[in-house]
Structure formats: structure tokens, C-alpha cells
Amino acid sequence: MDNYKLICHKCGKEYALGNYSLCPECGGILTLEYTDEYLKEVLKEDRVHQSMWDYHQLLPPVKEENRVSFQEGGTPLLKSREIGPEIGVENLYFKNETCNPTGSFKDRAVSVCISMAKEYGCAGVVVSSSGNGGASVSAYGVKGNMNPVILIPEKTPLSKVAQAIAYGGRVIKVKGNFSQAYHAAIDLAKRMNYMNVTTTFLSPYGIEGYKTIAFEIYEQLGKVPDFIFIPVGAGPALYGIYKAYEELKRAGKTDRLPKVIGVQAKGCDPIAKAWESGQKVQACKNPETVASAISDPLVGYEQDGDLTIEAIHRTSGRALAIEDEETLQAGLCLARTEGIFAEPSSAITLAALKQMKNQGLIKEEDVCVCTLTGHGLKDSQAYAAGKTEVEIIAYGDEIRI
Questions:
Q1: HEC assignment per residue over 27-66
Q2: What keywords does the record list, in alphabetical order (predicted)?
Q3: Which of the residues 63, 106, 216, 399 has an alpha carbon 20 to 30 A from that of 244?
Q4: Which residues are annotated as a binding site?
């Protein structure tokens, strides 16, 4: 009996592992599922993992020579020194994904996807991205000799893709917003025998990389937290984190799941709106937010949001949306009190925690983890908006403090 298989969440059809994106039968989302017996066997012993690929038994099977890695994962879980005590959450932690090789959590998903593309002999890889995913695919794609192509929305500032350009991937602008780049990537992958490694739910393998965030949190805390706050565009990272704790539960390592909190920006919040209304996800027509890394309107792939909401419900979590001003204030607070420089799309998790604490939804003793998914240098200009001048003096002038 095989230890793993791909299962379609829409029609239930099962597939052996291969170069799949969505279900060939119905277009539904595919996820990689393991048998209970296999999970119990590989998780029976507690041991410390130093990097993501130390969890290789809980990742898609790939030959070691096809593994493309920069030693991603193994990121620190930092207990808050000042913010937690100040807001009355004594067990507040930050999972600092900014320490990954290209500065974001995307490295986990991309490392797995690029490795699988090599495993299946794909001619190359393509990604639609507004920044972090493109940088990661460019770095890992070049290292794996996989001809990476990065499709970005037309209005993406070059500063957001400078990292991808520097690594050597081919960067192409697509007219429209992220959703147009998303569909262009699907077309190119089909036509060129490329693997589509867009970090939505298009790849069942990327989710497996995100799982390792949760495995690390579980090891680092020594228990299951009460809340995990996760920035959400389409939601594969949230689903991966949920999936990891579900697998730990199935293996008998825990009897409960953390409440996962999906955090979106008010300027692009199709998942938060759907969660609040209890309806199916409707695409966002005019996305506009400072949290650009999670500004995903979901046009034409609303099912991504529906699956994310399903995971939230299974953990008794919630989805919420945050105003840009609150997000920027949270980012400055992180930098000035904890010394962590995170992009707005990451700092938004702290803003969400503060909102829920003010609403009485979080108790002082609750163990809370804010996932900080990307480095502040990814979008540093967001914090300097409106600051057109920096004080200047001549040498010899008295500096008044």
C-alpha cells in the first residue's frame, strides 16, 4: 500500500504523485495525503530538526540529487520581550520567517516545488508573483537549472522584483493585477511542460513545505499553541499549518489543534468577508492595500479561499481584515520594541492579535504565535511613505537632541 497519494477536494478522485497542478478531471484543488500508519511510524520519536529537509519523511518523496535547497527552515521562535507584557499577552511569540535564505517563508514551498520539478523532468518552472515568491523561485530555479520565469502584475514596482532580477530569473510583466499573472502562468506551464510553482493552491507540493513551519513551532514550544496568526492572500500557508497539526493529531502526538487566524488587509479581503458572511468567497474587484504581498483578489480561483475557510473552521479559528494604518503601526512597533523588521504583510498579524485582545477574544495566559512571513527590506518604502525629507546638517553644526 502506498504511503501517500494526491486527493481532489472537489470530486474526491485519487492520483499517484506526478506533475499535477489542479485535478485533471474537475479542476479542484489537490492535496497530498499520508496514511495514518505512515504518520504514526515517522512521528513516533521526538527529535530536533535543524532545517526543513530534516522533515523529508513528511515531505513529497524526492531523490537527494534532485533536492534544491539553501538550508531553508529552522527559523527562530522568539518570545516577545515588550509587546506581549504591554498588551497583556504573557505568552506571545514571533515565528521569524524573515530568516529564510531569500527573506521569506516562500522558500519552504519553493524548495519543495523546484525539487519536484527536477524529479519529474520538467523543462522549467513558472510562477506568478508580486514579490516574495518571485525572488524565491528565481533563486531556487537558477540553482536547480530549471529556467525560472517570473510573471508579475503590470504595476509592480521594480524595487519589489529587484531581488528576482538579481538572482537571474526571467521577469516578465503581465497587464492587469495578480490574477491576470496567475492565469498567464497556468497557460505557460501547459504549453511549455513547465511546473507551475505559483504559491497559491496550484501546487499540492508547496503546501507540504509550509507544513514544516507548524512542525517547528510544535517542537520549539513543546506543545500546541492556542492561536497562530497567519497572513493570508490565497491561504496555502494557513492550510499547510493546519494540515501539519492535523497530521500530528492523527499520529497521536496531540489531541487538539491550535486556532488558526487568517489575517487579510481591508483593501483586499475576499476571504475575511466570506468568513464573516458565511457565504462562498467572492473575488475582490479593486485590490488596494499597503500589504502588497497578500493582495490577492482570487479572480477565477475563488475555491482557494473556500478551502482556506474550511481549514479555519476546522480549528475553530477566524478570519479578519485590518486597516493599513494599523498594519503600519504594528510594523513600526515590531521594529522599535522587538528589533524585528518585517514587511507590512507580516506585521499585519500583530495588528490582528491586538484587535482580538481588545475585543476580549484572547486571554492573558493564551499562547499566541504571530507568523512573520517576510523581511521588512522586501517593502521598506511602505514605512517611509509621506516622509519626504530627512534632517540634514553641515559638519560642525550643533546637533540639537
A1: CCCEEEEECHHHHHHHCCCCCCCCCHHHHHHHCCCCCHHH
A2: Amino-acid biosynthesis, Lyase, Pyridoxal phosphate, Threonine biosynthesis
A3: 63
A4: 132, 373
